[in-house]
Amino acid sequence: MMRKMIIRPLAVGLLTLALLPSCNKFLDIQSKGTLLEDVQFSTIRGYEDAMYGVYGSMAEQGLYGGVLTAGFLENISQTIGNVNSVSMNYHVNRYRYTNPQVRDQIDAIWSAQYQVISYVNNILANAQKSALSGHVLQLARGEAYGLRAFLHFDVARIFAADYRRAKAAGTLKTTRGIPYSYDFNLQNKHLYNLEDTYKNILADLDQAEALLSGDETIRGGDLTVATYETNRIVHFNKYAVYATKARVYNAMGETAKAIEYAQKVIAHSVDFGLADRSAFANVTRFPADRELVFGLYAPKFLDWISTTYLSTGGAGNVDQGRLLRALNELYTPLGGGASIDNRQVAYFRQIDSYTQFIRLLPDRDLLRSIATSSKGIMLIRLPEMYYILAEASYPTDPAAAVEALNKIRDSRGLAPLTTANFSNQAAFDKELMREYIRETPGEGLSFHAIKHFFLAFPSLTGESVTPTEEMFTLPWPQLELTYGNH
User: Which keywords accompany this UniProt record (predicted)?
Assistant: First the structure.
């Protein structure tokens, strides 16, 4: 069976000593924690367990096991919501970030993300001074560098300004980035400007790419019995590094690099490939046959999905998808024709005038029959690489861009488009943003796409919403603003 971490690294958040009741008490705990670490990191098995602990922490409901995938971020992007005014998500759908419940949720995301980063830093710090060696340790180090970049990048996408807009304004060096954490301690982390934040992310990804250069056994076998060196789909593998680089370069507007790294993933046909339209049902949820690049093994995730989205109740009493007419408009194929988008009926079911989100779990009773190895979270999938390739290609080769988009459309049951369907980049970007919204509900990517393209998007009830920086750059925790970087 997949091993769980025996001794979890001591949890250290980003905020200051002012948050602790006693500095002396912390130092006593820290000294005991150091002794435990000496035992844990004395063997390769200890590093494996520590990495499994990191992945387990990421899979918790407060991060990618809920809030950052099928929860809070989807509420902001109006993919899923609630029309009951007592619900926190009702306030999120209306961007009331000062509401106490919403404020607490935002602060918790920040704290939890940096807490996991501290675990990663602890692994890297111990690996740096370790006398151990070997392939598994190299893999663990590569994954750790990659995850540190991945986690910081998501903090930046949620809590910092958009890179391209800051670059266009000539303010990259003066725009606030995020604290980049390299240590496992209580010291304040240095706050970098936006340009240097992205440089730090890419530097960690470069380290990961070098360490994972020989990482090729990506798929195969039961996830629950895989060794550390096989079935790497639930580890931050080499192709997850490539995909994250494609994400980062695309966010920066570095089109040539975005194309290069997206194509590295797409070209690896041994492990990855888009589903045939007749087999679309095989890729709607984890482990998304041949479309998943990186995900998390998470046995509790579908239980949360069941409770959150498949509870009984009338309209407005449970979280729901868009109003039916709004959903129909979203999934009406561009260019018309007789083709039908297979995603709409696979992702949503009509409940009264609203729709129920069923993509990740269509039936509560199904939970009993789903194998443990099929319970997990999708964090990077192949379709996104085609979207990045399409967006980055359009300025110099519109035909190649439309061809990349058509690969997804064909897989999802839609007729192909031509360059005649798009008058300019803005028209193409609008369709790409809508494609992210149609393709990725339950993954949290709609938030990032809307912030990236910054175009009007459909609300839960069908109205057009104009995004603002305040809506898609979440407020920092007040304690971080007060004590951070001092």
Answer: Cell outer membrane, Membrane, Signal
What angle do helix axes 382-393 and 255-266 make, rounded to 10 degrees? 150
Task: Find the length of the chain.
Answer: 486
Which H, E and C letters describe the chain, residue by residue? CCCCCCCCCCCCCCCCHHHCCCHHHHHHHHHHHHHHHHHHCCCHHHHHHHHHHHHHHHCCCCCCCCCCCCCHHHHHCCCEECCCCCCHHHHHCCCCCCCHHHHHHHHHHHHHHHHHHHHHHHHHHHHHHCCCCCHHHHHHHHHHHHHHHHHHHHHHHHHCCCHHHHHHCCCCCCCEEEECCCCCCCCCCCEEEHHHHHHHHHHHHHHHHHHCCCCCCCCCCCHHHCCCCCCHHHCCCHHHHHHHHHHHHHHHCCHHHHHHHHHHHHCCCCCCCCCCHHHHHHHCCCCCCCCEEEEEECCCHHHHHHHHHCCCCCCCCCCEECCHHHHHHHCCCCCCCCCCCHHHHHHEEEECCEEEECCCCCCHHHHHCCCHHHCEEEEEEHHHHHHHHHHHHCCCCHHHHHHHHHHHHHHCCCCCCCHHHCCCHHHHHHHHHHHHHHHCCCCCHHHHHHHHHCCCEECCCCCEECCCHHHHCCCCCHHHHHHCCC
Stretch 216-227: mean pLDDT, rounded?
73
pLDDT in tens, 7-63: 233 333 333 222 223 333 323 433 344 545 668 899 999 999 999 999 999 999 999
Query: What's the pLDDT tens digit per position in 126-180?
Result: 999 999 999 999 999 999 999 999 999 999 999 999 999 999 999 999 999 999 9
CA dihedral 127, 129, 130, 131 (to 10 degrees): 140
Nearest Cα residue to 58 out of 236, 290, 217, 244: 236
Q: What is the pLDDT of residue 8?
A: 34
CATH number of the structural domain 17-461: 1.25.40.390
CA gap 53, 147 in Å, rounded:
13
* The pairing of beta strand 191-193 with beta strand 176-179: antiparallel
CA 162 to each of CA 248, 261, 369: distance values in angstroms, whole numbers, following the listed order = 11, 21, 43
Query: 0.70 cut: is pTM over it?
Result: yes
Q: Domain boundaries in the chain?
A: 17-461
To the nearest 10°, report the CA torsion of 87, 92, 98, 103. Answer: 80
**Residue corresponding to tokens 């629950």:** 224
